[in-house]
Amino acid sequence: MTEPLAPGATIGILGGGQLGRMLSVAASRLGLKTHIYEPGANPPAADVAHRVMTAGYDDTTALAAFAASVDVITYEFENIPTAALDQLEALRPIRPNRNALAISQDRISEKAFLNEIGLTTAPWAIVTTAADLDAALTRIGAPAILKTTRLGYDGKGQARIMAPADAPAALAEMQGAPAVLEGFVDFSREISVIAARGLTGEVAAYDPGENVHRAGILHTTTVPARISSAQRSDAVLIAARILNALDYVGVMGVELFVTPAGLLVNEIAPRVHNSGHWTQQGCAVDQFEQHIRAVAGWPLGDGSRYADVEMLNLIGADVAQVPTLAREGNTAIHLYGKTEAKAGRKMGHINRILPRT
Amino acid sequence: MTEPLAPGATIGILGGGQLGRMLSVAASRLGLKTHIYEPGANPPAADVAHRVMTAGYDDTTALAAFAASVDVITYEFENIPTAALDQLEALRPIRPNRNALAISQDRISEKAFLNEIGLTTAPWAIVTTAADLDAALTRIGAPAILKTTRLGYDGKGQARIMAPADAPAALAEMQGAPAVLEGFVDFSREISVIAARGLTGEVAAYDPGENVHRAGILHTTTVPARISSAQRSDAVLIAARILNALDYVGVMGVELFVTPAGLLVNEIAPRVHNSGHWTQQGCAVDQFEQHIRAVAGWPLGDGSRYADVEMLNLIGADVAQVPTLAREGNTAIHLYGKTEAKAGRKMGHINRILPRT
């Protein structure tokens, strides 16, 4: 399929979390329907999607029926079992492609790929045994951070090593999983570029946002980021290089460290990204619609921004602030429809329109 | 119920058209669900609503089940049968209230109400017979316009009378329905105020938009309207007077004529209004969310605007321009998911962000 999807067509989305929810709303604005595939009952996306399939990723009958009911398949999270993807890919196009997904599912393949296309990352080394870790610490030095190679997000599966003596405890935290040691980077700030590549190869990027984390979870993203215009174009060029190298179709989040030596790539996510939620208030075409446009073969929005915005995540009990936040001027609330406010759970976010500088 | 609805609560919406669709999306942002009541199959709102009840307004079993499944009831169109409203009102609160709905369902009661609270309208007279029409034309003069008192929208049920000789043909067009003769108003422009009143009586208004019609259907709304700041405050005060007089809860659209003698009220609509669609790009809280906030007992957004916007309706075959419009910068597309592009049918709209003046 290379023709743009016509209104009334259906986009299949693997995963029914808040990203799938906001992708569904964006698809509706373009007259497109969504069908959500999600093992859990009553996922956040269910309220706003045309259809929901409640089934596991090992249910080959459900996967086949799902594929038959959609025109193209995309996803809102990275950790989809390979066998399910194999089955789906034989039936419908998957966008972004399998290669992009495979690379970003594994920290080692991601870093190797980034270095291969000439981009700088923090120094890193593969660690499976205590001997690997000793050798890696000797080369990279402490402080450093040990991370599992797969399934890591929001600070999970990570252990800091401030001095070589911390090494055994850090390795134990990996619970035998393959890991990667990353050298600490002396960065002044972290920024994100949310960029998209269309089916015809066009690339569009949003203005980089500046990220602040708390307890390993994104806390705020603010646009414009406090960076120079040279850094701004560098960031966009880095994102474009990654998208083109992967023959990517869709939106990608690229996290970068701003250092005295230039921009380093921290990590990439082959999907819409929490640090791009500000685009819902700042841009005519937000990241969710941009992703839908890309996977549907539509022209991309140009990424231009008409407001300064601060995005603030509502994590766990933060959601209790909503009645107060609802009284604030120039503040857009986005709740995800989750009923239980567990600690560390992303319940929603707000976008504050800032006075223009 | 006077407590704000908690996330997870359900708002029942009578009518499943594009306004119900955009109300459902807005409700989802606040973590609220919607249940749509609509006689027609596959209405535009179905794709994004939590539930849809497909049943007629004479189906008392369906109406009872619908009411039992929701916390509060609102509507996206005025012409709901009285018996259905009677049944629903006994079971759940209806917002805006019955009185507001009754007044705006009938041009005569609407004009009488507006005059009663001290607002100016075009000169008008009730017309049932040829003798009524002759007498009315003598008093009001031609040109004038004859309109059915009920069920009129988008220029339907209207006949222009340029000279007394046009009277018989105009009356025949009413097909025996009660009608009202309105004198022509010499206005320089038409503006709309979209205003809201909350459950606690607070009122918030958006900046007035300037409307241009084509063939009796809204074509564009542009903010800011080209009016003086005195006219801007007059417009907002007029809207507030109407809302307070009706003890109104929800969003109302108020159409005003700008004349040398001041602002005249053209008509009011007890719901979100096509001329308020620009708020989707111009405001942190758009008219749809504002209506949901009001009927859910939440605090209102303050109505402040952070962008200049032109809203353009896509009527019938206009929707074929979407592939071209999708390539325009700073242009947000909103399609309603209707498959057949009949002449005169509202298929979608776009909001163009304008360079700030």
UniProtKB/TrEMBL annotation, chains A, B:
GO terms for cellular component: cytosol. It catalyses: 5-amino-1-(5-phospho-beta-D-ribosyl)imidazole + hydrogencarbonate + ATP = 5-carboxyamino-1-(5-phospho-D-ribosyl)imidazole + ADP + phosphate + 2 H(+). The keyword Chloroplast does not apply. Residues 111-296 form the ATP-grasp domain. ATP binds at residues 107, 147, 152-158, 182-185, 190, 213, 266-267. Keywords: ATP-binding, Ligase, Nucleotide-binding, Purine biosynthesis. Pathway: Purine metabolism; IMP biosynthesis via de novo pathway; 5-amino-1-(5-phospho-D-ribosyl)imidazole-4-carboxylate from 5-amino-1-(5-phospho-D-ribosyl)imidazole (N5-CAIR route): step 1/2. One of its GO terms (biological process) is 'de novo' IMP biosynthetic process. It comes from the Bacteria. Its EC number is 6.3.4.18. GO terms for molecular function: 5-(carboxyamino)imidazole ribonucleotide synthase activity; ATP binding; metal ion binding; phosphoribosylaminoimidazole carboxylase activity. Belongs to the PurK/PurT family. Catalyzes the ATP-dependent conversion of 5-aminoimidazole ribonucleotide (AIR) and HCO(3)(-) to N5-carboxyaminoimidazole ribonucleotide (N5-CAIR). Homodimer. PANTHER family: PHOSPHORIBOSYLAMINOIMIDAZOLE CARBOXYLASE, PURINE BIOSYNTHESIS PROTEIN 6/7, PUR6/7. This is N5-carboxyaminoimidazole ribonucleotide synthase. It comes from Phaeovulum veldkampii DSM 11550. The lineage of its organism: Bacteria, Pseudomonadati, Pseudomonadota, Alphaproteobacteria, Rhodobacterales. The gene is purK.
